[in-house]
Design a protein that fits this description.
The protein is an alpha/beta fold and 407 residues long. It has two domains: 146 residues, ATPase, nucleotide binding domain (Nucleotidyltransferase, domain 5), CATH 3.30.420.40; 188 residues, ATPase, nucleotide binding domain (Nucleotidyltransferase, domain 5, 2-Layer Sandwich), CATH 3.30.420. 40% of the residues lie in helices and 21% in strands. A hairpin with a 4-residue loop joins strand 2 and strand 3. Helix 1 packs across helix 3 and helix 11 crosses helix 13. The protein is globular. It starts with a strand and ends with a helix. The structure holds adenosine monophosphate (AMP). Adenosine monophosphate binds next to helix 10 and helix 12.
Length: 407
C-alpha cells in the first residue's frame, strides 16, 4: 500500500511517501517556516532527485496542497494521480487516555483530539490542522492517527500516578503518559526479531536518546513504565530539558530570581539539560569534543547524562523482574559509542557485557554485547515514519476487508 506519512508541527510539515509492501521510501521532504513568505519546501525522490523551493506558504492547508502537488509533479513527483495515495498516516503527539493504539480517523476521533488539546497545547493543534487539510484535499483517502503516547497507555496505575491529590488526576488528567511510543515500539519489536524470540515472551529496556530522551521498560510487549511523564520534560537529562527534578526547585528559583511562570518554563525546557550544565552546547558531538579537549563542565554534563540512564536501568530491571535485551536508538543512542560505553560499564553483575570492538561499529541494526552476555545489547536506528506507514496500512487493510465482507 502507498501511504503518505505526515508529521505536522507548529511551523513545519514533514512527509514521507512509503510503499509498505517493500518498505521503499518513494519520496520524502519537508516544508519549514510555514506562516511566512519565505517557507522552504525540500523534496527528495527515491532516485536522489532533489528540489528546494522557497515561497509564501501561510498555513498548513496550503502546505498540504504543496506536498500533494510535489508528489504529482511531472519532473520531480512519483505519482500521476492523487488516487495513488491510498492512505494517510498522521503522527499525533498526544492521544491522552483515549487511544491505546492507532485509529482510523473519523469525526469523533477529531473531536476527541480537540478535547485533548490542553494536554499538548503546542503539538496537537498543528496535528489537527494537518488532518483537517487532508480531509479537504484528499477527501476519499482513509486516514489513520498514530500516537506518541499510545504504546504507553497500558502502563499500570502504580507507574502512571503521581503522588499528588487524586482529584487532580480525575479533574485535569494529570498522570504519566510517556512519549516516543512509536520509536520504542519499533526498536523493541526489532530487537525481539534479531534475538529470534517472540515479542510477547521477553523483557526489554529501550533507550531513545536524541535531542529528547526517554527510556521504557517493556514487559512481553507492554510498556510498563517510561521516563517521560505528563509532558516530555520528565526523566532523563536531555539536550536542553532538565528531566527529573525536585518539584520545589522551580518555585525556589522563581522566588529568588523573580521569574514568571513562562520564564521558569523556558528555563526548564530550553536552558537546562546538557546545555544548562555545560554552558557549551546541547549537541552531544560538541559536548564530547570539548570534554576531550579538557572542558570540565562538558564532562560534568556528559556524566550526569549517562549516570541518569544507568540509574533508570537499575529501576527498570527491578520493575521488570529480569531483562533479556537493551536497545539504543535516537541520534545519540545510535551514534555515540562513548555514551553507550559509559552507560554500560560495570554492569557485568547484571549479566550485561559490552563488547568494546562491536560498540565501535557504525551503521545498521547491530548487536554490541559479547557472545557471553546474558542480556543482549542492540543498536537499532529508529524509523518512526515506517511504523506509522505500517500501522496505517494494517488498519486500512482491515477496513477494506470489513467493507468487502459487508458488500
Ligand atoms: P535526534 O534528536 O535523534 O536527531 O538526535 C540529536 C542528537 O544526536 C544530538 O545531541 C546530536 O549531537 C546527537 N548525535 C548525532 N550524531 C552523533 C554522533 N556521531 N555522536 C554523538 N552524538 C551524535
Amino acid at each position: 500500500m502507498k501511504v503518505l506519512v505526515l508529521n505536522c508541527g507548529s511551523s513545519s510539515v514533514k512527509y514521507q511517501f512509503i510503499n509498505t509492501e517493500n518498505k521503499l521510501v518513494l519520496s520524502k521532504g519537508s516544508i519549514e517556516s510555514i506562516g511566512s513568505s519565505s517557507a522552504i519546501l525540500t523534496h527528495q525522490r527515491y532516485d536522489g532527485d532533489t528540489i528546494k523551493i522557497t515561497g509564501e506558504i501561510l498555513d498548513h492547508d496550503l502546505a498540504i496542497e504543496y506536498v500533494i502537488a510535489v508528489l504529482l509533479s511531472k519532473n520531480h513527483g512519483v505519482i500521476k494521480d492523487r488516487s495513488e495515495i491510498e492512505a494517510v498516516g498522521h503522527r499525533v503527539v498526544h492521544g491522552g487516555e483515549d487511544f491505546s493504539g492507532s485509529v482510523l480517523i473519523t469525526d469523533t476521533v477529531i473531536q476527541t483530539l480537540r478535547e485533548n488539546i490542553e494536554l499538548a497545547p503546542l503539538h496537537n493543534p498543528p496535528n489537527i490542522k494537518g488532518i483537517v487539510a487532508c480531509l479537504k484535499h484528499l477527501p476519499d483517502v482513509p486516514m489513520v492517527g498514530v500516537f506518541d503516547t499510545a504504546f504507553h497507555q497500558k502502563m499500570p496505575p502504580r507507574a502512571f500516578l503521581y503522588g499528588i491529590p487524586y482529584l487532580l488526576y480525575k479533574r485535569y488528567k494529570i498522570r504519566r503518559y510517556g512519549f516516543h511510543g512509536t520509536s520504542h515500539l519499533y526498536v523493541s519489536k526489532r530487537a525481539a526479531e534479531l534475538l529470534g524470540k517472540a515479542y510477547d515472551s521477553i523483557k526489554i529496556i529501550s533507550c531513545h536518546l536524541g535531542n529528547g530522551c526517554s527510556i521504557a521498560a517493556i514487559d512481553r510487549g507492554i510498556s510498563i513504565d517510561t521516563s517521560m511523564g505528563f509532558t516530555p520534560l520528565e526523566g532523563l537529562l536531555m539536550g536542553t530539558r532538565c528531566g527529573d527534578l525536585d518539584p520545589s526547585i522551580p518555585l525556589h528559583v522563581m522566588a529568588k530570581e523573580d521569574l514568571t511562570l513562562a520564564e521558569v518554563n523556558t528555563m526548564l525546557n530550553k536552558h537546562s539539560g546538557l546545555m544548562g550544565i555545560s554552558g557549551v552546547s546541547n549537541d552531544m558531538r560538541e559536548l564530547i569534543k570539548t570534554m576531550n579537549e579538557g572542558n570540565e563542565r562538558s564532562r560534568l554534563a556528559f556524566e550526569v547524562f549517562c549516570y541518569r540512564i544507568k540509574k533508570y536501568f537499575g529501576a527498570y530491571i527491578a520493575a521488570l523482574g529480569g531483562l533479556d535485551a537493551i536497545v539504543f536508538t535516537g541520534g545519540i543512542g545510535e551514534n555515540s559509542f562513548e555514551v553507550r560505553k559509559e552507560v554500560l560499564t560495570n554492569l557485568e553483575f547484571l549479566g550485561i557485557e559490552l563488547d568494546d570492538e562491536k560498540n565501535l561499529i557504525q551503521n545498521g541494526d547491530r548487536i554490541i554485547s559479547k557472545d557471553s552476555s546474558k542480556v543482549k545489547v542492540f543498536v537499532i536506528p529508529t524509523n518512526e515514519e515506517l511504523v506509522i506507514a505500517l500501522e496505517t496500512a494494517q488498519i486500512v487493510s482491515e477496513l477494506r476487508k470489513e467493507m468487502s465482507n459487508k458488500s
